[in-house]
Amino acid sequence: MDEVEVVVAHSERATLRVGDVFLKVDADQARIDVEVRAMALVPVPTPEVLWRKPPVLAISAVPGTALGSLGEPSTMPPAAWAAAGAAIRKLHDAPLPPWPGGAGRDLAELAADLDSECERLVTSGFLPADLVTRNRQVAEAAFRPWTPAFTHGDLQIAHVFVDGDEVTGIIDWSEAGRGDALYDLATFTLGHEEHLDDVIAGYGTDVDLDVIRAWWSVRSLLVVRWLAEHGFDPFAPGCEVDVLRSRM
């Protein structure tokens, strides 16, 4: 009999794996609604929905190997990163989803949230003031007009699976919606700046690198405290705090 593997578990959601089946348990059924709807619409390979019985969604495992993970060097060749870039471009060129959400938050609201979080990081002593101040300056480039695209919203490299130079599956679509395409590219290359050129080559169009770097700062500043409070280590080598330090 297959063992039960706990893939991720915290107060908001949990994902279990039993053989080739993943069971996603989420207290917020709206996230699961988005995940199911997005996987039915996107023009890239996704897991198959096996069944759904709230609060549980059962999906199939996708073939291939995850491109990598934050904090660890990726062993995948440049061609795999380029293939991922091409798949991301295909997603961004798809018709917009009928719901807003995703990484398409109001920029003024996002900037206000970022300023509040920066203040908490400094006053609590969680991060040095100069590190927070510098990254808040870098982050400003993200707050500019952009054309909405169909975005994944949480496109970590661990969510993209490849076999050679072919993308075989993209998982975890609960944050999908209308968003900034460069936010997806930034999330995907967070902590793996050395592969950014390969991704952009596959993506097939010029992108504003200052905006990519800005989103690295925004995402890292907003999540470091949450990660620490939920059992993750943003201070591990190559992770979010190192990403912030790289902007100094």
Question: Any overview of this molecule?
Answer:
This protein has 248 residues and is α+β, with helices and mostly antiparallel strands. It has a single domain, classed as Aminoglycoside phosphotransferase (APH), C-terminal lobe (Aminoglycoside 3'-phosphotransferase, Chain: A, domain 2). Helix content is 40%, strand content 18%. The protein has eight helices and ten strands. It has helices at residues 29-41, 78-92, 107-123, 129-139, 181-189, 196-203, 209-229, 240-245, and strands at residues 4-9, 13-18, 21-26, 49-53, 56-60, 65-66, 149-151, 160-163, 166-170, 177-179. It has a five-stranded antiparallel beta sheet with strand order 1-2-3-5-4. A three-stranded antiparallel beta sheet has the order 6-8-9, covered by helices on one side. A hairpin with a 2-residue loop joins β8 and β9. α3 packs across α7 and α5 (181-189) packs across α7. The chain is globular. 38% of the residues are buried. The model has no long low-confidence stretch (mean pLDDT 94).
Secondary structure layout plus pairing:
Blueprint: E1 4-9, E2 13-18, E3 21-26, H1 29-41, E4 49-53, E5 56-60, E6 65-66, H2 78-92, H3 107-123, H4 129-139, E7 149-151, E8 160-163, E9 166-170, E10 177-179, H5 181-189, H6 196-203, H7 209-229, H8 240-245
Antiparallel strand pairs: 1-2, 2-3, 3-5, 4-5, 6-8, 7-10, 8-9
Helix pairs in contact: 2-6, 3-4, 3-7, 4-7, 5-7
